[in-house]
Amino acid sequence: MMSDLSATDRDVSRETSERLSALEGLLRKWNPAVNLVSKESLKDARTRHIVDSQQLYTLAPRDFHRWVDLGSGGGFPGLVVAILAAEQNPEAEVILVESDQRKAAFLQQAARALGVKATVHAERIETLSPMKADVLSARALAALPALCRFAERHLEPGGVAIFPKGANHQAEIAEAQQSHDFSVSVLPSVTDKDAAILVLKKIKAR
Ligand SMILES: C[S@@+](CC[C@H](N)C(=O)[O-])C[C@H]1O[C@@H](n2cnc3c(N)ncnc32)[C@H](O)[C@@H]1O
Question: Mind telling me which residue stretches traverse the membrane in this protein (predicted)?
Answer without folding.
Answer: none
